[in-house]
Amino acid sequence: MKNLKKIVALGAVLVLAISSLAGCGGSSSEEDTTIKVAATPNPHAILLEKIKDTLADEGYTLEIVEFEDYVKPNQAVTDGDVDANFFQHQPYLDQYNEENGTDIVSVGGVHYEAMGIYKAQKSAIDELSSGDKIGVPNDVTNEARALQLLEANGVITLKEGKGLTATKADIVENPYGIEIVELDAAIIPNTLPDLALAVINANYALEADITDDAIAVEAADSDAATTYANIVACAKGNEDSEKIQALIKALQSDEVKDFLEEEYKGVIKATF
After folding, report:
1. Right CATH for 30-114+226-270 from 3.40.50.1010, 3.90.226.10, 3.40.50.2300, 3.40.190.10
2. CA distance 99 to 223
3. What's the rounded Cα separation, in Å, for the pair 76 and 40?
4. Structure pTM?
5. Is the pLDDT of residue 227 over 90?
């Protein structure tokens, strides 16, 4: 009788264990079909919204987590809060990894956002005068890019060969006598009343609805078009996972390319 009770008790334990494992399996399966992506609003979150149905047809649920800055999306990947992010270019990611000791990798490029010089207190470059302030992004790669754009339009001259490491300390000629003001990229559109001109990333110009106020933009055939392609990034080791590959495939589609051409009129172009 005692042996029978033991057998019954053991059977009950096994049933509970199997049920528990089945429950865990269901949860894991649900997680495996959810793709959580950190993104800045425009155009990244908008493009992700465009591919939700495509991913749904593949059996995935896309969850978009929006951020307004350029730091938290990478933190979210490192912390494991999201599967991937979509907001940055490779030089910025390289800088971030180096400064933070992280190991985030690119999955692939999606589009190129033309950085532009925008009107503020002045409406043209030839209106600049000594002491005028020009706002540029304060992170290393975007500042260098902004300075290169100013150089290409005759505002300044930089030390030869500085490239992606250029800072305002590398200005060797300043014929207009302007002052470079380094600002967080996200707030530059809000500081236009205090600036003569500003160099602004396309996504922030779009959010501020000022793209028509650009007086110069990076050329579509410039090195910047490939160097600064916006990428999908994830933690190293996850780039070949099925859901990350499904994500990049959906973003590198004719549907997305056509949408970029129709919606952004050359300010943002596909790079695939």
Report:
1. 3.40.190.10
2. 25
3. 13
4. 0.69
5. no
